Amino acid sequence: MRTEIIKLLKKEGKLSEDAIDEIKKVDILDFSSIVQEIGKQETEYIKSSEISKELNTEYIGQNIFVYNEVSSTNTVAKFLSMNEIDNGTVIISEKQTNARGRSGKAWESPLGGVWLSIILNPNVDHSKLPLITLATGVAVAKTLEKLGVENPEIKWPNDIMINGKKVCGILTEAVAKFNTIENVIIGVGIDANLNVEDFPEELQVGTTTLKEELGRTGNENLLIKTFLEEFEIISELFNQGGYEEILKEWRKRSYTIGKIVEVRTPFNKYYDGYVVGIGKEGALIVEKIDGTLEKVISGECIIKN
Ligand code: BTN
């Protein structure tokens, strides 16, 4: 039974919610190894052999799992991180059927995008989580710069923008144990080889893609390889406590500082203000209309000018 299910899933390279439920029924303890086995292959566009060729990292992406389709790479990464798994393991899928964005929103993930999650074991407390997200934004921006994008910017906290439109989103999720973070799952979605029309109409206005910005189809594997290298560099800086340096890189590319914004906190508190800067823990510093300063740690920030 187990062998048959693996054979079938391997053939399809898919890990839907239903498939996950089926695997769990067979043997929960073996779950992780089955998921890993299915991910050890190449898909039409994503080739781990190409990503790994001359990949200049110590641990990020040294272990890669690739799927044709999963519900969410963050979900698969979370499952895998419950068992022993190498720090820096990467989960990639050509498509996602139930991907998550920030603030409980769904994330569109059609074929042609780069949808991946990194499992990190950073050994830090919760207060450092926003900085990991900001650092990831810097790594994506530097990757795009290397691939020829002029002036990618970062909209707080983690949207990567080109010419004022979003090209990438980042969702950081912690697998916590008491007050220490056991693992951090960093989910990155880049609208790579897509057209804006591939997205539902309501998303098209503020969205762009690498293909449209660069005027050509790019190589997803090169994009992933470059990102993994940039990510390891910044992740090492983070591990060595180079928070100021990370913030400096973030500020250089900020799309948000100096703008009038509407802040929407997770508790449905809305207010307008002027973005003065970003604090050392990664919070946005907003000057409200009454002149008081507010630190925004989480929530949405809508640019008004
Ligand atoms: C955002 O709302 O801007 C964050 C989007 C994060 C999407 C990525 S795609 C890979 C990973 N898997 C998910 O389900 N979400 C993240």
Q: Low-confidence segments, ≥5 residues, pLDDT <50?
A: none
CATH topology of the largest domain: BirA Bifunctional Protein, domain 2
Bound small-molecule species: biotin
Oligomer: single chain
The span between the termini is 60 Å
**Biggest sheet features:** 8 strands, mixed
Query: What is the β-strand count?
Result: 13
Mean pLDDT: 90
Q: Over all CA atoms, what is the radius of gyration? A: 19 Å
What is the structural class?
Answer: alpha+beta
Strand order of the largest sheet: 1-2-3-4-8-7-6-5
Short description:
The chain is 33% helix and 27% strand. With 305 residues, it is of the alpha+beta class.
3D structure, described in words:
This protein is an alpha+beta fold. The protein folds into two domains: 2-252, BirA Bifunctional Protein, domain 2, CATH 3.30.930; 260-303, Roll (SH3 type barrels). It has helices at residues 2-12, 17-26, 31-38, 48-52, 73-81, 129-146, 201-204, 210-214, 220-239, 243-252, and strands spanning 14-15, 64-70, 90-96, 114-120, 153-155, 159-162, 165-177, 180-190, 260-264, 270-278, 284-288, 293-296, 300-303. It has an eight-stranded mixed beta sheet with strand order 1-2-3-4-8-7-6-5, with helices on both faces. It has a five-stranded antiparallel beta sheet with strand order 12-11-10-9-13, with no helix packed on it. Helix 6 crosses helix 9 (220-239) and helix 6 packs across helix 10 (243-252). The radius of gyration is 19 Å and the shape is globular. The relative contact order is 0.12.
